[in-house]
Amino acid sequence: MMGVGPSGGSESRRAVSPVIGVVLLVAVTTILGSLVGAYSFGLIDGIVGEAAPQATFSVEQEAGQMNVTHTSGEPIPAGEFYVVGGGLAEQRWAAAGGETTDGTVQAGDSLELSPTSSDDPVRLVWRAERGDRSAVLRTIPVESTGPAAFAGSVRTGTGFGDQQFADQSYTWTGRARYGEIGNWELKVGDSLSGGAQAGRTWTSGATESFELTYDGSGTATLTVGGTTISDSVSVPQGDAVAITVRAPSRGSATAKNVRIGGAVPATDSVTAADGDKQYIVVESVGTSDGFTITGEMVFTWTGTTGKEDPGMYIDVD
Are 283 and 260 in contact (CB under 8 A)? Predict the structure, then answer.
């Protein structure tokens, strides 16, 4: 029998060591690969949060209302689903009045919103409860609906609008007119003989903005273009406002895009031509409580013209 010397055992161990090293390397590589895969797919709790849910939504908008409905895809935990933007406060889906099924938002669940800003799109946002992962599921532009309609009734006709009031006279007035040297062009006050007044130069065919405001406490302010005047006035006794435009013999006067507190009356423009006078009377304005009337005015004339031709009178009852 041959014995195995010390040198033979040492060589055997050296032959086995590389094999063990390769096996360990393969094992470590396999484990690392599994960890990377789990990390990538969000399977390791505490390392990476959940993956963003995949879902689709339908949107309908009409008259300032927005209906959002989950139509297909994964259900989303209601506590992780947020509605952001549209001029509204940020809220979770359920807190905003959205439907849920067993605590989740899933196909068929819907939410009714009333966005207040068309400059701020509505965003449907998912935020994981654990970790800091989030994703915008959909961005929805808000359709502009324009100003609301004014509820008060409107009458139109030929002549002076204040003659349509119950007592056929105004409580106070705001006026803009073509004037002569030494005469006023803008006035606001209880009467034509008093009140605040200012001069102004007009350009035929130019569009000028106007605003008449009553603060509900005795002060009226008229602004035309960049000129503003204010005066103390009596509290209106009626509840109507008349806008009268007066045209020169060879020209016109127009008030257009009229708004009462930002709302659109049934008739929002009036034009007179060739020496005529036309009016709009808007009722149920709430004059004693305070109000604001805005719009645009255009005067045109040919050659020379006299005092008050053209002109625009806003009389308050």
Answer: no
